[in-house]
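User: Sequence in, structure out. Go.
Assistant: Echoing your sequence, followed by the structure tokens.
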Amino acid sequence: MFRHQKELQFEVKVDRPDPMLARQIQEVLGGQFGEMTVMMQYLFQGFNCRGEEKYKDMLMDIGTEEIGHVEMLCSLISQLLDGATPADQAEAAKDPAIAAIMGGINPQHLLVSGLGGLPTNSNGIPWNGGYIVASGNLLADMRSNLHAESQGRLQVARLYHMTKDEGVRATFRKMLARDRYHQYQWMAAIAELEEKNGVVVPASFPPEAEMESQQEAYEFWNLSEGEESSEGLWAQGTAPDKSGDFVYVANPVAKGQIPNPAIPSPELHHDLDDIKQRVSK
């Protein structure tokens, strides 16, 4: 059961309207790493969570908080659009730089949402359910969550420096702080799961099951010009699970065969073998 509370999690207040900033903020609302993505990702992971109840409870807690963040951003966008008119769009387009970089005010804010937030990114591309990850494997999902929060916080930090509006910045500071906590949270969950089951996903397919392919788990193949990559721990260190040491292969050699696919039926019209072959009339 979900219940909506009228008060926002944190105060949202802008110093002045700014329709072009409203367009930029659409990215952290409905973009690939926006609040809609983490909201849906955590909720679907929680809905489908099996096993220890604490993980499901934590996912539902954070997913529900992200619903509130979506509402906060919608409120922020609405305030930034207060008083915007089609004339503002035309005025913005007079500046060639603004017109080229921003395209002026997002016309969808005027034509589609009536001065409200949209489930789209900053270019008007609709939010896509393909952005979310909910695999059913807790460690794989928690790592994806850490990635999503890292990218989302990065984008909010960039937006922070794109405005001098102290009201907007105050909202962003709250979001940046919460996103920092969420990174801590996912790192803690990842560490706990790695301690329990190991660092490789899925833990239920152990290295022994790889049989004769064991050595392939430790080789770094140099497949680009230069050998600077040999200096990293991934090429000369020990595997995170202490199961073996990495080996740098400076001049790797292909170990497989040259593919030799069969010639398909002439009815498929590949024209690969005998160009005189024709489909029977």
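User: And one key feature?
Assistant: The first strand starts at residue 219 and ends at 221.
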